[in-house]
């Protein structure tokens, strides 16, 4: 699985595997990754890992989150990206192994974890507004929906089916009327997603 290497003043302090779908970064001790420096906010940033992809999100920190020298709000992490938080430099290393594979390996053969779902792809149908009736076929392994900087979800297509995760924005989208968390949730036929007031149904062939 992907990992990060945390350095300060050129000295490596931590090497951390991104073993969870959501890992918080900050000064407070309850974070998954604790960076003990006064210039780091209590809850500074969040790393969300979905299948092969990791996203870094700044949680409205005081001093900002920087990737490769640029201040970011939300960033899709690439291999060897350099993240800077206060006095810390964090190198992101991707190895292309799905974090879900380790958790499921005990109960499933690895071959059933990594390939995309077989058969015709599912689709998203818009239920209201000016785009009512329009459909989006979920052809890609990862499909993002929403408005960057406001509210974004990612639908992941894998051998076990489809999952949805909230990856950007403070306000949680709704799944069947219930706030959607950062951890991936399984999508079932005719589930309704409420994304900023736009209602969309998940349809299987």
What are the key terms here?
Tumour Suppressor Smad4, 2 domains, elongated, 205 residues, six-stranded antiparallel β-sheet, mainly beta
Summed up:
The protein is mainly β and 205 residues long. The protein has one helix spanning 99-104, and strands spanning 3-8, 11-17, 22-26, 33-34, 45-50, 53-58, 65-67, 70-72, 74-76, 82-85, 88-93, 123-126, 135-137, 142-147, 151-158, 161-168, 174-175, 178-179, 185-186, 192-195, 198-203. The chain folds into two domains: 2-94, Tumour Suppressor Smad4, CATH 2.60.200.20; 123-203, Sandwich (Tumour Suppressor Smad4), CATH 2.60.200.20.
Radius of gyration: 18 Å
- The neighbouring-strand order within the major sheet is 2-1-11-10-7-8
Structural class: mainly beta
Distance between the termini: 32 Å
Order of helices and strands: EEEEEEEEEEEHEEEEEEEEEE
Q: Which term fits the overall shape?
A: elongated
CATH class of the largest domain: Mainly Beta
- Percent helix: under 10%
Q: What is the third-level CATH name, the topology of the largest domain? A: Tumour Suppressor Smad4
The DSSP helix count reads 1
Describe the largest sheet.
Answer: 6 strands, antiparallel
Uncertain segments are: 96-116
Overall number of structural domains: 2
Pfam family, one: FHA
InterPro entries: Cell_Proc_Reg/RNA_Proc (IPR050923), FHA_dom (IPR000253), SMAD_FHA_dom_sf (IPR008984)
Protein name: FHA domain-containing protein
Organism: Pseudoduganella violacea
């Amino acid at each position: 699985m992907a990992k990060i290497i945390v350095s300060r003043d050129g000295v490596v302090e931590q090497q951390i595997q991104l073993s969870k779908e959501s890992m918080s970064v900050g000064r407070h001790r309850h974070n998954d990754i604790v960076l003990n420096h006064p210039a780091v906010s209590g809850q500074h940033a969040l790393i969300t890992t979905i299948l092969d992809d990791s996203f870094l999100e700044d949680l409205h920190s005081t001093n900002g989150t920087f990737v490769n020298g640029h201040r970011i709000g939300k960033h899709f992490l690439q291999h060897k990206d350099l993240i800077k938080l206060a006095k810390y430099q964090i190198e992101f290393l991707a190895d292309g192994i799905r974090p879900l594979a380790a958790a499921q390996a005990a109960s499933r053969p690895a071959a059933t974890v990594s390939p995309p779902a077989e058969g015709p792809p599912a689709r998203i149908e818009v239920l209201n507004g000016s785009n009512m009736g329009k459909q989006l076929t979920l052809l890609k392994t990862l499909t993002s929906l929403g408005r960057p900087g406001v509210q974004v979800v990612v639908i992941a297509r894998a051998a076990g089916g489809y999952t949805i995760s909230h990856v950007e924005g403070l306000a949680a989208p709704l799944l069947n009327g219930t706030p959607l968390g950062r951890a991936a949730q399984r999508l079932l036929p005719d589930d309704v997603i409420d994304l900023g007031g736009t209602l969309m149904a998940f349809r299987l062939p």
